[in-house]
């Protein structure tokens, strides 16, 4: 049981924070590849560069950069907590043997 709790907590925090920190790298890459469509001005995100590319890429996912950060952080935390719980469960099973 303790392994699950530790795995859930550590996994959720680590992957959630990692996802938020990597978002400024991943989102502009997706935008430059043409996977995020157009900016609010109608300009294709793939034609933008620098801060405009980063901003438009972040806003393309949920409409706001803050919303996108929250979604990415939440998805990362959920994924990390799930994986951490599974790893913790296996650790608990090994301890019982």
What is the overall number of helices?
A: 3
What portion of residues belong to β-strands? under 5%
Low-confidence stretches: none
The termini sit apart by: 14 Å
Described by strand count, sense and barrel closure, the largest sheet is: none
Shape: rod-shaped
Rg from alpha-carbon coordinates: 18 Å
Describe the structure.
This protein is an all-alpha fold. The protein has one domain. 78% of the residues lie in helices and 0% in strands. It is built from 3 helices and no strands. The chain has helices spanning 2-32, 50-62, 65-96. α1 (2-32) packs across α2 (50-62) and α2 (50-62) packs across α3. The longest helix has 32 residues, at 65-96. The model has no long low-confidence stretch (mean pLDDT 89).
Give the gist of this structure.
The chain has helices spanning 2-32, 50-62, 65-96. It is an all-alpha fold and 97 residues long. The chain has one domain (2-96).
SSE diagram, text form:
Layout lengths: L1 H31 L17 H13 L2 H32 L1
Helix pairs in contact: 1-2, 1-3, 2-3
Keywords:
97 residues, mainly alpha
